[in-house]
Amino acid sequence: MADAAAAAGPVRLAAAVLAGLRGRDRRRRSAAAATGPRRHPLRCAAAAAGAAGLVRHPGRRQSIAAATGAAEHAAGRGQRRDPARGRDRIRGGCRAVSRRPSTTEDASSATGEDGFASRLLAWFDDHGRHDLPWQHPRTPYRVWLSEIMLQQTQVTTVIGYFQRFVDALPDLPALAAAPQERVLALWSGLGYYARARNLHAAARACVEQHGGALPRDLDALVALPGIGRSTAAAILSQAWGDRHAILDGNVKRVLARYHGVDGWPGAPKVEKRLWTHAEAHAASPSLPDGRLPDYTQAQMDLGATLCTRANPTCLLCPLRGDCVAHREGRSGELPTPRPGKTLPRREAQVLWLEDADGRVLLQQRPPTGIWASLWTLPQADDEAQARQWLQQATTAAPEAGAALPAIAHAFSHYRLTLHPRRWLGIALRERVGDNDGLRWVARAQLGALGIPAPIRKLLESGPTSPPAPDASPDTD
C-alpha cells in the first residue's frame, strides 16, 4: 500500500504530461505549417515520471516501464510504434519518428556521389589486387586479353592461361599472324571458345584497319568482334587512363546493392539504370584523372572479394555506410536473380578409338555451332548412329567397346550427358582419312590441339575413372 501511494503522484504527473502533449499534437496537426518529426509522447511521459523520482527506484528500468504503462492506462489507451514509420532517432531527449527511405531511393540522395569513388579508392589502396600479371606491364594488348579471358571466368583460373598465352603470342601482331588452331589450343580448357575465335578475328581486324594496334576509341573498339561497351570502357580506362564507366557482372552487383536497384540486372531497363549510376560515379570530381585504372580495378575487386553473390562481407565494405541494401537488410536479395528456367537435357555417344600405336582418333568440329573448330572424340546422337558409323568408317566391332562412366557437362542453353566407350587396336577403313576431319594424334601431341575441357579430362583421366563435371558452362 505504501509503495502504491508513493507511485501515485508520479503516475498522475505522467498522465497529465501525456494529456498535455496530446493536446499540443492535435493543435500542431491542425495547423497547415506543422512540419518535422513528432516526438513520442509516451517516452516523454516516462521521462517526466523519471524526473519526478521513479528513476531513483532500485529497479530503474522496470520502474520507468511501469510509469509508461501507468500513463498509457491513465490516458485510456495503449500505444505501440507503427512499424511503417521506420526507425526512431534521438531528438531533444525524446525519440522522434522519421520515415525510412524506400528501397529505390539512391544512397547519393543523402550523401552525394563523391563518397563512392573516394572510399573505394582508399579501400583499394590497402586491400585491392595490385600484382595481377596483366598489370605489369599494363599494355593495351595485355589489358584486352585479360578482359576477354575474365568474361565468365574467375581470376584464379585466368592467371595461368594468361601467362601461357602471352608467352606464346606476346603482342597483337603475333596473335593476328597465328593460325586459329594455335589460338584455340592455347585457349583449350578455358571454355567459351567463341571468345578465342573473336579475339583472333579482332586482332586481324586491327592489323587491317588500325595499323596493328588497338584503337583508342570507344566506338572503334566496340566495332571489333567480341568487344562490348563495358569491355571497351575497361580497356580504355586501364590501358590509357581514360574516363569511362564499366558495368561487368561484379559492378552490376555492387551498384544494384549500393543504390537499391530492384530487378534482374540483365533486363534492359534495369541495366540502363545501372549504366546511369556507373557513369555518374565515373564522372565524379572526387575521382582524380590519374586514378582511372585503379578505380576500374577497385570496382571489380570489391565485387569479387566482398560484395560477392552469396554471403557478402558487408562488415568490411567501405561503402556500407551509404549502401541501400545494407541499410535495409536486403544484401541477400539484391541484385534480383535471373528468372529461373529449366535447361533441356541431351545425350550423346562418345567414341574413344586408339590404333595399334596408341594414337587417339580425333575429329574436328564444324566451324560453327557447339565447340566450333575444336578437336574432339567422334560423337553420335545415339547408339544406332554410333554403330552405323563404326561399321562404315572403322574396323571396330561395336559390341566390343568398353563402356566408361557417363560425363555430365553444362552449356549455357542445355545440359549434355556424354556416354563414352573405348576401343583399342582399331584402324580406319581406306576411304576415310584426314579429308573427313579425322586425325590420329599421339598422346604427346594432344596439348597442341584445341580440345574441349570434358574431352580433355576424359583422355587424361584414363579408362577407369570419369572426369569431374565442369563447374562453369560453355556457350559454344
From TrEMBL:
Record-listed E.C. numbers: 3.2.2.31
Residue intervals passing through the bilayer: none
Domain (HhH-GPD): residue spans on this chain: 149-305
Reaction(s) catalysed (UniProt annotation): Hydrolyzes free adenine bases from 7,8-dihydro-8-oxoguanine:adenine mismatched double-stranded DNA, leaving an apurinic site
Comp. bias (Polar residues): 100-111
GO molecular function: 4 iron, 4 sulfur cluster binding; 8-oxo-7,8-dihydroguanine DNA N-glycosylase activity; adenine/guanine mispair binding; metal ion binding; oxidized purine DNA binding; purine-specific mismatch base pair DNA N-glycosylase activity
Low complexity bias (residue ranges): 65-77
UniProt keyword annotations, A-Z: 4Fe-4S, DNA damage, DNA repair, Glycosidase, Hydrolase, Iron, Iron-sulfur, Metal-binding
PANTHER family assigned: ADENINE DNA GLYCOSYLASE
Function: Adenine glycosylase active on G-A mispairs. MutY also corrects error-prone DNA synthesis past GO lesions which are due to the oxidatively damaged form of guanine: 7,8-dihydro-8-oxoguanine (8-oxo-dGTP).
Protein's name in the database: Adenine DNA glycosylase
Organism this protein belongs to: Marilutibacter maris
